[in-house]
Design a protein that fits this description.
The protein is an alpha/beta fold. The chain has helices spanning 15-26, 59-71, 128-133, 141-144, 159-169, 188-196, 284-301, and strands at residues 6-11, 31-35, 77-88, 91-98, 105-114, 118-120, 152-156, 175-180, 199-203, 217-220, 226-229, 231-234, 238-240, 271-273. The protein has a five-stranded mixed β-barrel. The protein has a four-stranded parallel sheet with strand order 9-8-7-12. Strands 6-13 form a two-stranded antiparallel ribbon.
Length: 307
Amino acid sequence: MNDPTVDCIIVGGGPAGLTAALYLARFRRSTIVIDDGHSRASLIPVVRNLAGFESGINGKALLAKMRRQIECYDVPVLEGRVTTIRHMDGRFLVQYCSNGGGSSRSLVAYRALLACGIRDKLPPIDDAVGLTQRGLLRFCAICDGFEAQGKRIAMFGPVSRALSHALFFRTFCQQVAVIAPDIDALTEQERALAAENAVELIMTEALQLPNCTEAPVSVECPNGQRHLFDAIYPVLGCHSQADLLSGFDVQRDSDGMIVTGRHQQTSVDGLYAAGDAVNTLNQICVAVGEAAMASMAIHRSLPANPL
């Protein structure tokens, strides 16, 4: 590996990656962000539980604000997808392809921060991304459950998982349903919990949603019944974005998420992780906090800045 070698390469341009870039730039560390343009935050119609935005803010608008802030420090944000990371001679060789395709390119850094996040598993229906951006499909009850008061909400997925989410959602509203293909798999205790909390149980193999652009969303069942909901929460799990770690002997948990220590250090020396790629509470404020801690640890682990 030949110089020039930068202090840190950040994989991911979501809230965690951009916060880390801001901190490292202000520590006078040479930093490059590589972003594939698929931050989970970009799908959020309105973020209302992020301090400082009393009227809420659209996810894409939030990312644009964060990008403009790091532009003040001349941090390059490269549009592309990281394909591999190799740890050699105390440095990281990061290979990536631009979003437009073409040949692979390489960068070298003394430290690397994984802020590549996760991708929610969407139901196999037409325009699932568009439905998410319009708020008809939702993924975070913690973020937007408060706005569901007085509305009718459904959880869709494997029945035990969907019921668990539905019971939590009773924190916010009274009209909650579970849509699942395996209702018969519920235990007597689970059925009693559903009845006690007035959670409606609807069995169907798949979501069948007619074309719609606004609520209510109509769910059609094989028996011809139709159910109307203001929003549906798929609880189908998520895809880890850390597949590029396949060549690393890095510790992960049973869900495939990256395990980190107190300062966001992974089990690989010099490699850090923050945000949804780490199995903690998937919230923007948590991602921002983890990025700040990781950046401080990265800065301290490097030789002092030249005067």
